[in-house]
Amino acid sequence: MKQTLAEVMRMSRICRMIFATCLGSFILVIFYFQIMRRNPFMVDSCCRKGSRSALQELYNPSQMELSAGAVLHQARRDQVVDSCRMYSASSRKRRVLTPGDLKHLVVDEDHELIYCYVPKVACTNWKRVMMVLTGRGKYSDPMDIPSNEAHVPSNLKTLNQYSIAEINHRLKHYLKFLFVREPFERLVSAYRNKFTLKYNSSFHKRFGTRIVRRYRKNATHDALINGDDVKFKEFAEYLVDPATQRDGPLNEHWQTVYQLCHPCHIHYDLVGKYETLEEDANYVLHLVGVGDSLHFPSYAKSTRTTDAMTAQFFSNISSQQQIQLYQLYKLDFLMFNYSTPSYLRLD
């Protein structure tokens, strides 16, 4: 009887131990999935030191599906290098970049990325994605981030906030990328957004009133005060006016990519294009190693500025203005392999 009782007590202890072990494992599994739900990039971040970087994957892809992209982006890099060499040979201008030139370069330390944002080239969505990548679990879906929050400077760290030694280290070891767009489509998109939408009153006051005052004869009092009805012809005249150049750098929404991201001074590893936005963007995310858990947001194609729309805007300005605008954005056309638009009158 004593032996039977002891056996029962021993089996009871074993059962309790098994139950406790199973319960503990269950709790750990639940805890793990709660963390992963909040931050799907935790595994990638914590294990990155022992894995291949995005830079390594770009130049020496370990996956077949990344090889075609590597060839494409090598061709785009070569185009930038060749254009810079031609520009350097024809120009006497020489300059050294300052930290102030690096304010458009967003840094992601966890994934060793540097992204140069160009307004009117899906930069809001790219900033959202960068906030997910750098947020350490604070965000999981880019589209949950309001557009105005994506543009708050303190939400992302830029390269100009580092020391010179830290800047040089990141430029050498991090994957650097930017996204570009056909220059005149980008220009018309900026005009439509900043001068034809009523809610952009700050641009109307800051730039619209100045443009109306300079280039509109017999402007009404309301137009001079509000600056909310700027014509594209007036905007074009403002851009090519030497006085505008003397006022200082152009606003970032219509500044050239050459001046914003300095591709002749900074060797960009990857040049994405607006025309193949989702494909190129998701290629970047696959290089980073988060392509299965994070996808670049879709964009509203119905409101997009198209080539046909751009041609219509340019038909309303003189051939002289067309030539001057082409000269202003010529480097962007050449550097990123965009053809001279067929609608231009450059004779």
Protein described:
There is one protein chain. The protein is globular. About 7% of the residues have low confidence. Helix 9 packs across helix 11. The termini are far apart. It has 347 residues and is mostly helical. The protein is 56% helix and 6% strand. It has a five-stranded mixed β-sheet with strand order 3-1-2-4-5, sandwiched between helices.
Question: How is this fold's topology laid out?
Answer:
Blueprint lengths: L1 H37 L3 H6 L6 H6 L4 H27 L14 E4 L4 E4 L6 H12 L12 H4 L6 E2 L5 H10 L1 E6 L2 H13 L5 H15 L5 H6 L5 H9 L1 H6 L9 H5 L8 E4 L3 H12 L18 H8 L4 H17 L12
Parallel strand pairs: 2-4, 4-5
Antiparallel strand pairs: 1-2, 1-3
Low-confidence stretches: 25-50
What is the succession of H and E elements? HHHHEEHHEHEHHHHHHEHHH
Count of discrete alpha- or pi-helical segments spanning 4 or more residues: 16
Oligomer: single chain
Residues in helix, %: 55-70%
What shape does the CA trace take?
A: globular
Question: Which radius of gyration do the C-alpha atoms yield?
Answer: 27 Å
**Overall average pLDDT:** 86
- Give the CA-CA distance, first to last residue: 112 Å
What is the strand arrangement across the widest sheet? 3-1-2-4-5
- The computed structural class is mainly alpha
Fraction of residues in β-strands: 5-15%
Query: How many E strands?
Result: 5
**Sheet with most strands:** 5 strands, mixed
